[in-house]
Design a protein that fits this description.
two-stranded antiparallel sheet; 8 helices; alpha/beta; about 30% helix; about 280 residues; Rossmann fold; binds S-adenosylmethionine
Length: about 280
């Protein structure tokens, strides 16, 4: 399947080109025991695996870039965590690992079929989470930490390029951007004062990334964007202008992680706080 000319143009404006889709990302697992495998540099307890890894059925296998939004959330045992768009549960699993399975995590997703996979993973891996099947815009209550790993155009999932190209259009990017703004607004409304909201996507599109963060900063005077405290990972800061639209300077604190940076999928992470 061919890449869309429009997508190619957009990537070029962001300093990327279609050769990113020739790359293959590496996968990792988490372990509390020391393993004789190469360590993922940005998280103790994560190890790269390769094709020779045999224990596949017993382990949760994922792209190590998924660890970054979870680190940005700074999960603590005493937190009340909401994972708004959680299925199939990769980041719920990582958050549960990071808090020794002792934190109250609500793992939600709107899609009932994906919720089945989420429930299966929660059971199989003993994840400390309560599963919900609702729209992220309808969740009530309040939470000290919220992860919004939003539905997006998925351009960063370079291993699945045919699927991305099949569904890609500028119209879809615009529709997703609209839905993401509604989700981020509601997530911030149910965030406790002093709490952290992490917004992440696996796309490069500024409309789905910096623009969503800029929208939040514009809407709420008590929102700010912090730098993510993470080491040993290569990334660029958020961009402050796209197609003639200028964004709030704080978006520079966001992380743009491109496939060539660390041989992972492409990712965007913003860590926001309620003052
Ligand atoms: C990027 S995927 C989430 C991946 C997941 N966080 C993980 O790490 O395994 C985005 C998810 O958002 C869900 N979704 C889409 N719209 C939603 C909404 N309005 N409320 C809640 N979930 C939604 C989709 O069903 C999909 O599972």
């Amino acid at each position: 399947m061919q890449i869309h000319e429009k997508l190619k143009e957009r990537l070029m404006k962001l300093g990327l080109d279609e050769t990113i889709y020739e790359m293959r990302t590496r996968k990792c697992i988490l372990s509390r025991e020391k393993l004789n495998l190469e360590k993922v540099p940005w998280f103790d307890g994560a190890y790269f695996i390769d094709a020779s890894f045999t224990n596949r059925n017993d382990c949760f296998i994922f792209d190590p870039i998924s660890i970054i939004p979870c680190l940005a959330l700074e999960p603590k045992k005493e937190d009340k965590i909401l994972d708004v768009c959680a299925a199939p549960g990769t980041k719920t699993f990582i958050l549960s690992f990071m808090t020794d399975n002792e934190t109250k995590i609500t793992a939600n997703d709107i899609d009932k079929f994906r919720v089945r996979r989420l429930k299966a993973n929660v059971n199989k891996f003993n994840i400390s989470a309560e599963v919900m099947n609702a729209s992220g815009r309808k969740i009530t209550g309040s939470f000290s930490k919220i992860l919004l790993d939003a539905p997006c155009s998925g351009e960063g999932m370079i291993n699945k390029k045919d699927k991305i190209f099949q569904h890609w259009s500028e119209k879809r990017v615009r529709l997703l951007a609209k839905a993401q703004k509604k989700l981020i607004q509601h997530a911030f409304e149910i965030l406790e004062k002093g709490g952290i909201l992490v917004y992440s996507t696996c796309t490069f599109e500024p409309e789905e990334n910096e623009e969503a963060v800029d929208f939040l900063l514009d809407k709420f005077d008590d929102a700010c964007v912090d730098k993510v405290d993470v080491n040993n990972i290569v990334y660029d800061g958020g961009i402050t202008e796209w197609n003639g639209k200028k964004f709030n300077n704080q978006v520079k604190n966001c992380m743009r992680i491109h496939p060539q940076h660390n041989r992972t999928g492409g990712f965007f992470v913003a860590k926001m706080r309620k003052l």
